[in-house]
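Good morning C.,

I know you're traveling, so I'll keep this short. The sequence:
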Amino acid sequence: MRNEVSSDPRAYKVSGSLAPLLIVDDDPRICRLIGKVAEEMGLRSEALSRPEDLLHLDASGRDGLVLLDLGMPGLDGIEVLRRFAAVHCEARICLISGAAQEVLASAKRLGLELGLDMAEPLAKPLDLRTLQGILKPLQSTGFHRCPTVIDLAAALEKGEVVPRYQPKIALETGESVGYEVLARWTSDEFGEVPPAIFVPIAGEGRLMEELTGTLARRALEEIGGRWRDASICINLSPSLLEDLRYPDLMEGWACDAGVFPSRVTFEITESEAMRDPKRYMDILIRFRLKGFHLSIDDFGTGFSSLDHLYRLPFEELKIDRTFIRDLADREEARVIVGTMIALAQGLGMTSVAEGVEDAQTAELLREMGCRLAQGYLYAPALDPESLERWEELRRPGVSEPGHDPGGPAVDERQGELNQARRA
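The tokens, ready to paste straight into the viewer:
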């Protein structure tokens, strides 16, 4: 249920009040080129090429897509990213630059850490087909206004927000060992609403307790009824860790569903757990005393402190996808991920890699000693029926025409799975 930054270009959100494409580049020729390509695709665009224009840019209501030049005189792209983050800009941002690849990658990671929705950067000189590819989703965006707290509250009441389950895989054996619970909202008005949009709404609108409770109760019932031995991971907002009742509430819900606490892991984002550990320590300890497990989520992106990691009762360390996606291509990523895995091993914790999307990355992680992995290589977040079928097809001796029974993704409805990957 975490605030996921979607990698799916269909997640662009366009309100209709502004041009869906904003081009920020100090070279007017680049602005004209991109604007012409957008026009040929039937898209409205707006271009800013003067530093003084950027000083007066109000990005608070901006959505859609922003193509942002990284190296501009006066006010460079990094300063613009910080300004966008300060006003909670909801647009997807694609950096364009002729800078070295490692500079682009670092700038993108900064944007993600600032809470912005960052697309893969575009290197200059621009490739026309790549540019058309990143603009294409703007032609079919389904948002005409932004969802509000009222919309989300109504969706929770109507049961539109539901849990989906992404398998966690043991890298040594290939077996599924549990499932992470991820929130999905399918709205009659908005269509598929990405968690990156509705989870912050829940936090700002004081709906996080209702959202988490709705997902947890339903997930416990579904998992308890279908997979008696499976474990599940539920994301907890830090705001819930201030409620002394919460360990008792979760214990009661698990008991009602017939699920032992030992089958449930709660994931807490590193940035919050490390910010003020004394604030949450009593509740975290109570969870452990009741038999629940604890995982520190998105490790490496927040306020890491080895002292706090040593003192807090975590048993699992989840390595953030921002490091995993570069593992096969960048030595720096391999060094950092290897250090995290060694840290987990040294502290007696289980290491989990998020966002594993290809076999090469999975093999590298296995060789490094990482215990578990999850990602689109194995399966997206699935509804219970699809998950049951996925598990069935992974059993030894079960196969269907045209499918490799040993492969990581073996659902016969591959088209549906591919679509689900982008949800």
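Safe travels,
E.
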